[in-house]
Amino acid sequence: MPNAQSNPLSTVSDVPSTAAQDACPGLVWAFRIRGDGTAEEFAECTLTAADQGRGGEDWLWLHFNLADARVAPYLRTAAHDVPPAALELLLSADDHQQLHADGACVYGVFADLVYRLGGPTDDLGLLHFVATERLLLTARRDGLNALEAVRRSLRAGTCTKNQTELLETILLQVVAGVEQKAEDLGDELDAIEERLIVDLTDDIPKRLARTRRLAVRLHRLLATQRAAVGRFEQNVLRTTGKAHDMRTGHIAQRLDWLDHEVVALRDRAHLLQEEVSLRMTDQTNRNLQLLTIVTTVFLPASVISSIFGMNVGGLPLEHDRTGFVWSMLLLISASGLVFWILRRLGMLRR
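Structure (tokenized):
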């Protein structure tokens, strides 16, 4: 019988957590899927070759944390059944979304919403995956919404036939997460639009900028995913293997539909931004008009006060005790005359 480190990807058994970390570093969780589709999760586990060949139709879903520096050398040593190209993509930092078929193996990289304790966020993370005939390997550097959703589903008793069906479920959960985020964007745009009808508040431009930025990011995400699925559907026709029974048609349809929805939200946000810009420009013009009117009204008073302020002889009312009163009356009269002229011209009503 081979030793415990010759092929540690063969099976799963319960051991204390310290030993599990040493034997299978970076493992976040592991599921054994039985022949009837039911799943059994192992929180503390080690992967050994002692049980190789056991389990009949059982297969494994192993999920790793790529932030652990020990994962890459461990998998390069242990994953003998994974094609080299698939393994390198699984461990790489490549941020390009892609989906490939190689013999009896499906592998690639998909982006998903980052999952925190409070739920999915607006940030995007990368899901790396490899599906062979007896194994599904997934890896990430940040918690991802789709993986958490599928994990909860398996814990609740959901059955899955094979690794490609589970991979389909994960990819559909990626789309579902983006769909929920798109619905939140629609609700946010509704709230902004309702508020904009009443008044333009200071927080609206910032909220609208965040909403449009997220819509643009989601559109890029969906367009790239749709292109990756399209290339996969073309390439898979030239390959063979049991792993290629993965159905991507319904995934492509949901991506197309959702991308149209996100584009509509992006265009709607753009139109609202234009309306906000027009409102802000109009408000600025009104302020400038008010400043111009005030300056024009008090311009004659400024001229008169400048004349009386000149340090020269012969100024009128210089030695008159009522000179201040007469000068004030002159200033008020001049400003009042200009105000009356502006009003007659209708400039105060614009």
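The domain at 298-349 is CATH 1.20.58 (Methane Monooxygenase Hydroxylase; Chain G, domain 1). The first strand starts at residue 11 and ends at 14.
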